[in-house]
Amino acid sequence: MFRLCLFATTFTLILAALQAAAAPVKVPAGLFKDVNDTTVGGARLIRGTQLFIDDWLIESLEGVRRQLNQPTKHKRNPVLVKDKPWEEGAPGYGTVHYDPKAKQFTMWYQTWKKVPEGSRSEGNLCLATSKDGVTWSKPIIDKKGKTNMVQAPKVTGFQCAGIFRDPSEKDPARRYKMLFSCAPDGTAKTWMTSVGFSPDGIHWTAAKPLPLIPFSDTQICPFWDHRSRRYIAILRFGPPNTRLVSRTESEDFLNWSPKVTVFRRTRRDDVQATQFYQMAPMPYANGYIGLIGAYHNESLKPIPADKPWTDRQDLQLAYSRDSVTWFRVGGSGAVSNASLNRKQDWSRQAKAATFLPYGKMNKDWDWGYITPYYTPEPIIVNDQIHFFYSGSNAKHWWTWTGDPPKKDPNAKPPTKGVGLATLRRDGFVSINADEKGGTMTTRALLFLGDGLVLNADAKGGQITVEALDADGKPIPGFGLEASQPLTTDSIRHSLAWKGHKDLHQLQGKPIRLRFHMKNARMFSLTPRTNTSHYIQSYN
Fold first, then answer.
1. What phi and psi, each to the nearest 5 degrees, are found at residue 235?
2. Which CATH class is domain 10-64+439-534?
3. CB under 8 Å to 175, separation ≥6 — which residues?
4. Closest CA to 243 of 192, 278, 269
5. Res 4 pLDDT > 60
6. CA 495, 69, 438 angle in degrees (round to 5)?
7. Residue 121 to residue 53: CA distance in whole angstroms
8. Are 288 and 245 in contact (CB under 8 A)?
9. What's the rounded Cα separation, in Å, for the pair 263 and 324?
10. pLDDT, tens only, 61-94
């Protein structure tokens, strides 16, 4: 019997407690008793896709470097713009779902109601659909008003909705869930976050009584976390102008825990006076990806030539393995807050941290300010991850709103729209090797099955692999001389050695993999099972 070892940080201990309180996870007969175990006999147990975004699987890098990769903005951006009279201030915060069976995208996006002077701002919620994520239609939903507005919860000050379809919900009337901000009495003293339900994503009702949830005045992003068996929401810390990212959780979607701050400013953020407006999370592979709305250098004055980032927002990337402890992702992969607080010159690192940049100043439609749209689940079509975002050709403190001290009677409204950007599946961070070549060696790992799949681009180069035992000695028959070179670009390279039709001889015992790379990039590693009887029992 393997001895099961769990080593954790303070935050992962918190997660372990949450998992212990949750319903047990059912596992197939013959597998590990605790499906959440991450180490077996000192080896990292890998289940599902492992990104190379952090060091969890990586022991050493020699002659290679890690790189943050940026998505490609679609050439037809913006893919959705305001073209209806009721779309005041649109498109604002939004959520996008994708149904792979129906092959349909659904977008909920916020518009604004015209309210009396001095009243709390209030939003409408509109819906659009698409087959490809590029060409969108706005179906007539409100038959009386002949608009694409859905029936939002009837609460004063409704705005900032985050929506998801709950696969665990047994009540059809609550299949779709929403967290939103509101001010029930129309004043700031009741400004709060609350709950809505819907059977179809169109007809929404507010929970009664309205549960008091910690306040947030930017988009709130809830989702069902299958790992902890709880609802999790990522939201702004609040109150206004306290730009931090926080986390809260719930067992029933009605009663929520106190907020825990997961992002604070670091020394790297001092370079551009960066704050965090919001973060759109999504479960991905064996962790969580977060798109951070990174707001730089608040100012009501014109943008100085030597500080082009002033009063603008781009998107940065975050990563977590437990949804509690988050790492900021920079040009060389995941970095902890402790490391980001070291005394050093952070200028280059700050620039390299941008995941999705705004456009060229005073030229592109999204040059001033971009905000992540929320996708509760990864939208992957044709091996491309789809990201949506709201963009504007004006900076944050644009003068059209009429709100003091921004009031300008001659100001023109900015142009806003929704953009699409795509990224290779698992392509957030890559291990890159140039002509000189280099190696990446994994920590001791253990996998179940009979194959390992590598997501890599070796076109014009080469990747070979040697399998080592736990002590780092070559395993006979799986050395470098027997490795079948990878020389093409594929999401699904199968690791193979001459004389072996599969890898069942390696499964179930601690091994290390050493990748020898030249003019190549690697993105992820995934165990695979082709023959079911190659799943062993460890009791």
1. -155, 170
2. mainly beta
3. 165, 166, 169, 198, 199, 200
4. 278
5. no
6. 50
7. 40
8. no
9. 10
10. 999 999 999 999 999 999 999 999 999 888 989 9
Q: Rounded mean pLDDT of 356-373?
A: 95
Across the range 388-411, mean pLDDT stands at 75
From first CA to last CA, the distance across the chain in angstroms is 5
**110-124, 309-323, 411-425, 475-489: range with lowest mean pLDDT:** 110-124
In this structure, of 22-26, 274-278, 454-458, 476-480, the range with the lowest mean pLDDT score is 22-26
The answer to whether the beta carbons of residues 150 and 108 sit under 8 Å apart is: yes
pLDDT for residue 412 is more than 80: no
Measured distance CA(338)–CA(175) in Å, rounded: 40
Given this model, what pLDDT does residue 26 score? 45
Is the backbone of residue 285 left (phi > 0), alpha (psi -120 to 50) or beta?
left
Predicted pLDDT at 528? 93
Q: How far apart are CA 337 and CA 287, in angstroms?
A: 18
- Is residue 348 exposed (0-12), middle (13-18) or buried (19+ Cβ within 10 Å)? exposed
Sign of the four-CA dihedral 26, 229, 335, 495: positive
Backbone angles phi, psi at 154, to 5 degrees: -85, 80
Kindly list the domain boundaries of the chain, sorted by start residue: 10-64+439-534, 72-400+412-424
Is 277 in contact with 371 (CB distance < 8 Å)?
A: yes
Instruction: State how far the Cα of 395 lies from the Cα of 404, in Å rounded to an integer.
Output: 16
- How many other C-beta atoms can be found within 10 angstroms of the C-beta atom of residue 188? 12
Residue that has been written with the tokens 């080469």 in this structure: 462
DSSP 469-493: ETTSPBPTTSSGGGB--B-SEEEEE
Which amino acid belongs to residue 482?
Answer: A
Strand order in the sheet with 245-250: 221-225, 230-236, 245-250, 260-263
CA 405/CA 297 separation, integer angstroms? 17
> For residue 349, what is the enclosing H or E element?
helix 347-352
Query: Is 196 a residue whose pLDDT tops 90?
Result: yes
CATH of domain 72-400+412-424: 2.115.10.20
pLDDT tens string 29-48:
434 444 445 666 788 989 89
Q: Name the 3-class secondary structure at 149.
A: strand
Q: Give the confidence band of 535 by pLDDT, cuts at 50, 70, 90.
A: low
